[in-house]
Description:
This protein is α/β, with parallel strands linked by helices.
Amino acid sequence: MKFGIYPGGRAGTLCSHPSDVAAIRRLVDDLSGGRPFVIREYLHFFGDATPPDVVTSLGAEHELAHLTMPDEWYVEGNRELDLVVSYIPQVADVSGWLAFLDTVIDRYGHLTRYLQVTLEPNFPIPLIDGSAPGVLEALALGIPHARAALDRRGLRHVRIGFSVAEPPEWLGGDDQFWSYLSSVPYHDFAAHVDYVGLGLYPDAFSPVAPRGNPGDTASLTAHALHHLRGESLPRAHIPPSTPLHIAENGTPSGSPRTEQTQCDSLTDMLGVILAEQESLNITHYELFSLRDADSGSTEPTGTLGIVTDTYRPKPAFAVYRDIVRGTGQLPVTRHP
C-alpha cells in the first residue's frame, strides 16, 4: 500500500496560520523516510457567480499560481501528487468546468500522478461538491473529458478517479447519486475510472461506541469500506478490479477528545484498513492532515492534524510514521 498526506493547514474555511514550507519539508521527509509518498492538494472551480469572499474564505485565490509547496517539491524524493479538482459553483456551469479541467491539466498535469475529478459529489453539504448545482453531470462528463485531455498531452500515466463519502446513513442518504451513475453506460463513465477514493471520518463528527463494542470506530470503518465496495460501486458499474484509495481519513484531537484518543482512533482505523487491503483492493491511504487548521478550535475540523498548527508533533505523528515505514505494530482484526 502507498501512503500519503495532505500537507497544508486548511480544513474548509478554517486556517489559523500560513504554511511553513521548511517545517513541511522536514516533517514529510520524516514521515516518508524516502519511500514513495503521495501528497494530496486541492483546487476549486467556482464559476462566475460565486462571490469573491467565498473564494477567499477557502484560501483559493491563488491556486492556479501555486499549491502549498513549490512545484518541483511534488516530483522530488519519491513523492507523487494527488490533485483534487473540486466543483462548487453556485450556478450550474458544466461547460466552464470542463474548460477549467483543461486549464488545470495545462498548469499541473506534468506534476500530477493522480487526478481526482470532483470531491465527494454524493455529500450535499455547503462548500462540498454534492451541494453544487450540476455536480452529477460535472462528474460523469468530467472523468472522460479529463482522460482525453491528458491523453492529448501525452500524460497517459496519470490515473483518474473521484471520491465519495460513505456510508449513506452518515449523509442522510445518497441514493440519487448512485442511481444517476447506474444510468450512465459503462463505456461512458466507469470504463474511464482508474480508482475510487473514500473520505472516511467515522468518529470525527458524531459520538461513537467505546472501543471493542458494536458501533465503535473500527466497526464503523469496516462498514464504510464494505458498503462502498459491495453495495455502492456495483451500482455504478465499477468492478472489484478498480482500486480503492482511502483519499481522506482523519480523527480530531480537540476537546472533548485528547491527543491520545486521536492516536487510538487512528490506530483502530488503520488496523481495519490494512487488514482489508487485499480483499477489498485498497491500494492507497492518505491522511488528512499533516497540520491542524486551528489547534484552539472547538470544531472537529480544526484538530485533524498529526501536528499542531505551530507544527509540534502529536503522538499520532509517530504512529503514522511507523506505519509508513513498516515498523508499526497494529492490532489488525477483520470485521464482517
